[in-house]
Design brief:
Protein name: EGF domain-specific O-linked N-acetylglucosamine transferase
Helix content: 25-40%
Distance between the termini: 70 Å
Keywords: Endoplasmic reticulum, Glycoprotein, Glycosyltransferase, Signal, Transferase
EC number: 2.4.1.255
InterPro entries: Glyco_transf_61_cat, Glycosyltransferase_61
Oligomer: single chain
Enzyme class: transferase
Number of helices: 10
Length: about 375
């Protein structure tokens, strides 16, 4: 077989797979990633897009934010991030998923800004099944998606988007599935009250909704979003000095020597907490009051967004895993940041030294 014939054969197999996918999944799901709108603002010249957009707003300005890590930190700790200008839109006659917040036009295409990233929608956050779910018409008042994603993404992506959308449409309803974690329901009731929460497992075909674009690069949080969250959810700081956010109750994510780390923290006078046992209000108060926060890498550290008194964060990375999202969040808030690596166990002597160092600095 010649190289050209091999290429044609490969292209033909891809075309057959795409055709089969569209036949099986329909024009919306089967059309991804070819049929989607990356930016509504860029496509407003197209009548099929423009007729669904009533108004657009600037959600956040374009900005470069810098994270001043110590010189000795390795280059994998990213020192800057350029954020594009992000928008929000008042839409009409669209379909909206209460499960993920994904929005698409009748018959397609998908509006990528509703979910943040095509990479996410086809990868770890695959939502191609959602256009195949039953559809229910939801007429009347404007709607805002309030999807119960994983805690980090809900707190730092979904929640600030909903807060901004409510500033555009203060009387809107919040749409979520029937079954949601307690913190999601508590936040929704804080924002709009129980009477304006719509719980639905079907896809909603709505007359009107507000889409506040989600940051496509997960893990990067603008300072403007932090300020927006803190203004919408004031916290009453708890009377606590240093806290260790344990993952002992999470067998899949706990450190291999989590129990030993807990004992060492208690001996050092550190309060050990389990984030999953705390209400949304209690988590806000705990992180608002703590001066030192020690924790394995995980969603509990997203609560640093509430920090008011924190002076020191110590993060424990599991072996062979690294993500600097909480390091950047700490520096964005002006909090000193240190880390240790569990290889494979968390080094108790290094942790103890860091905790004592923070205590000596008045943490």
């Amino acid at each position: 077989m010649t190289p050209k014939l091999r290429e044609l054969t490969a292209r033909g197999r891809v075309l057959m797979a795409r055709t089969a996918s569209q036949a099986l999944l329909g024009p919306v799901s089967g059309g991804m990633p070819r049929v989607y709108v990356r930016s509504i603002a860029e496509r407003m010249h197209e009548p099929r897009i423009a007729r669904h957009v009533s108004e657009s707003f600037t959600r956040t300005e374009a900005v470069v934010e810098r994270y001043d890590f110590p010189v000795g930190f390795p280059p994998r700790f990213r020192r800057s991030k350029a954020f594009d200008e992000r928008h929000a839109y008042r839409l009409h006659d669209v379909l909206l998923s209460p499960h993920s917040g994904l929005i698409w036009l009748p018959g397609g295409p998908v509006l990528e800004e509703s979910y943040g990233s095509l990479i996410r929608s086809l990868g770890w956050g695959d939502v191609r099944h959602e256009p195949l779910l039953p559809v229910r018409r939801l007429a009347g008042r404007p709607v805002i998606a309030f999807a119960p994603t994983g805690y980090y993404h809900w707190l730092l992506e979904v929640l600030p988007a909903a807060v901004f959308a409510l500033s555009v449409e203060p009387e809107a309803l919040l749409l979520m599935p029937r079954s949601v974690p307690a913190h999601v329901l508590a936040a929704a009731e804080h924002l709009v009250g129980p009477s304006r929460i719509v719980r639905l497992d079907d896809i909603a075909h709505v007359d009107s909704c507000v889409l506040a674009a989600v940051e496509p690069m997960s893990g990067f949080v603008q300072r403007a979003e932090i300020d927006r969250l803190r203004a919408a959810f004031p916290a009453d700081p708890a009377d606590v000095d240093a806290v260790y956010v344990s993952r002992l109750k999470d067998s899949k994510r706990a450190l291999s020597n989590e129990a030993e780390v807990e004992r060492a923290m208690r001996q050092a006078g550190v309060t050990v907490v389990y984030a999953q046992d705390l209400s949304f209000e209690e988590q806000r108060g705990l992180f608002a009051g703590a001066r030192t926060v020690i924790a394995p890498h995980g969603a509990g550290l997203a609560n640093l967004v509430w920090a008011q008194r924190a002076e020191h964060v110590i993060e424990i990375f599991p072996d062979s895993w690294f993500n600097d999202c909480y390091a950047r969040l700490s520096r964005n808030l002006g909090i000193d940041y240190d880390y240790v690596v569990a290889s494979p166990v968390a080094p108790l002597d290094r942790l103890d030294a860091l905790v004592n160092e923070g205590a000596g600095a008045g943490c």
